[in-house]
Structure formats: structure tokens, C-alpha cells
Specification:
The chain is 53% helix and 18% strand. It is of the alpha/beta class.
Length: 299
């Protein structure tokens, strides 16, 4: 009877057995790679949207897991039911079948709800990543004019971690650029900026303005402490794909479409930083941004 009981639950235990086999294969592959090493001798610089890219990769793993469970769950419940009937662990009747069907639907419904939430979250991150890459590529053109560009700068305040999307270092000033990706209604491309709020065709926002100011203030404080000299940072908000109408007031935050990155230098570039100061600032920023481990031999 005990042997029949264990045999009846073999279908339920199969996923665990397969998982152990896969883990063994991965361990063997790790040992195989142990005799080699990466030709790269230091970590890489962060690219545009590096944090979002990592979040999307983690979400993809979760989504794949739930998809696999949704495919396996009906077979697992049905085969477990048949095994218990065959080995006499359970009796074949409508009640037993109903319990298994109900349990299968509840389990799959829970997985579907989780999958829906993950898909929506991934879609938002993907839009943000696309926009950060687009803004980063436009800002990188400023390097032809001697500017230095850093992306996805990791920051922390009061144990709260966040990132500054882009930092532009030039002889005419330091710019903290926050990127916001917003999907556009069909035929609507203008956003009005009155210095305090962003008025999109169907909604209004002010939090991106406040976030850009906070990031610039934090970066100014951090750089001042890092190089021992007062550093002013100008807050910038980039809205890729939108036409920005300033309504005669620019406010504390410069809001623009990054198709013309030269506007940062032409409109906001009023300071003059020596080559020495630019080098010192760039060095501090690079130390924080060079933390991406090459993936070929990633630990």
C-alpha cells in the first residue's frame, strides 16, 4: 500500500526530478568553464537603462516560469488523479474529480493573474528602456564636442537606492538628465510645460519635474563632497518623441525633446569648468559607473 501511495504521486514529483537534473547539468557546465577566464581585466561602464535591463531580465525569468507552470499544471493534476485512481489511493467518483478540477482552475487562475501583472510591468519597463537608450544615443553625440557622458548612475540616499539616467559633463556645466518615456495617443504629440507641471494631451504630471530637481540636488551635493569643491548641477528632463511647448516659462528644470542635445549646451551652458575640474568630476563618476560584470564568465 505504501509503495502504491508513492507511485501515485510520481507525476507530482516529476517537476522536482527534472529540476534536479537541470541543476546537475548547470553544475557540470560551471566546472567545465572553470578552466577558462575572460580576456577582459576590468568591469564595464553602465549603458543607458542598465537598471531597467536587469529588471526586464529578471521579469523574463519569472514570466517563463509561470508560462511553464501553466503548461505543466493541467497535465500534473490530471496525471496525479489518474495515478491515484489506478493504484487505489483514491476512489473514482464525481467528488474526487471535481476537487481536482477545482484545484487545477484555482491554481491556474492564480498563475494567470501573476502572469498578467508581470506582463504589464515588463511592458512599462520596456518602454522606459527604449526611451533611455534613445536619449542616451542622442546625448552621446555631445562627445564629439568634448563632453563626457555617463549613463544609469547608481545613487543612494537614506538607504534608498535610485539611479540618475544620464549625466553630461562639459566645460560649460554639469547636467543631470532624467528620462521619462510616455506613450502617445494617436495624433497627439504636444506637451505643455509651465515651469511646474507637464500637461500631456489627456493627463497632467508634476512628479517628473520634482524628481529631476531632487536628482540634480543630490548629484551636486555628492560631487561637491567627492572633489572637495562646489559643483553646480543643472536639472534636465528629456521627453523623447514629444514636442515640448514651454509656454514662455522654462522653470527650474529644463524640459526638452532630446533630438537636439546641443540645446543643453546652448541654453544651459553658462558656467566655465577647467580641464582639471572636468577630469576630477569624470573620474569620480566613472568609478561609480564602471561596475558591470562581463556576462561570458559572470559569477
Amino acid at each position: 500500500m505504501n509503495m502504491k501511495f508513492f507511485l501515485a504521486y510520481i507525476p507530482t514529483a516529476m517537476p522536482a526530478i527534472i529540476l534536479l537534473i537541470v541543476m546537475g547539468l548547470l553544475c557540470f557546465f560551471k566546472v567545465f568553464k572553470g578552466s577558462r577566464r575572460s580576456p577582459l581585466t576590468r568591469e564595464l561602464l553602465r549603458g543607458p537603462g542598465e537598471s531597467l535591463r536587469t529588471k526586464i531580465e529578471n521579469l523574463n525569468m519569472d514570466i517563463d516560469s509561470y508560462l511553464a507552470i501553466l503548461f505543466v499544471a493541467p497535465i500534473m493534476f490530471f496525471s496525479t488523479y489518474l495515478s491515484q485512481i489506478y493504484f487505489g489511493v483514491a476512489k473514482e467518483n464525481n467528488l474526487t474529480m471535481g476537487i481536482y478540477i477545482f484545484a487545477a482552475f484555482v491554481f491556474m487562475g492564480f498563475c494567470l493573474l501573476k502572469l498578467w501583472g508581470l506582463l504589464k510591468e515588463r511592458a512599462n519597463y520596456q518602454l522606459g528602456l527604449d526611451c533611455e537608450i534613445a536619449v542616451g544615443q542622442e546625448l552621446n553625440q555631445l562627445m564629439l564636442q568634448g563632453c563626457r557622458i555617463f549613463h544609469d548612475f547608481p545613487a543612494e540616499e537614506s538607504k534608498e537606492k535610485f539611479n540618475i539616467d544620464h549625466i553630461v559633463v562639459s566645460h560649460k556645466g554639469i547636467f543631470s538628465v532624467e528620462t521619462k518615456g510616455r506613450a502617445k495617443p494617436v495624433g497627439k504629440e504636444m506637451v505643455l510645460y509651465d515651469g511646474q507641471t507637464l500637461k500631456f494631451p489627456k493627463w497632467t504630471e508634476s512628479k517628473p519635474i520634482e524628481q529631476a530637481k531632487r536628482n540634480a540636488k543630490w548629484l551636486s551635493k555628492w560631487l561637491t563632497s567627492a572633489i572637495g569643491e562646489n559643483v553646480s548641477v543643472k536639472p534636465v528632463l528629456a521627453l523623447p518623441g514629444w514636442y515640448v511647448d514651454p509656454k514662455g516659462s522654462s522653470g527650474d528644470v529644463f524640459v526638452f525633446n532630446p533630438k537636439k542635445p546641443q540645446l543643453l549646451i546652448d541654453v544651459l551652458g553658462k558656467d566655465f569648468l577647467s580641464e582639471t575640474v572636468v577630469d576630477r568630476i569624470s573620474y569620480q563618476l566613472e568609478q561609480k559607473c564602471r561596475d558591470v560584470e562581463p556576462i561570458a564568465f559572470k559569477k
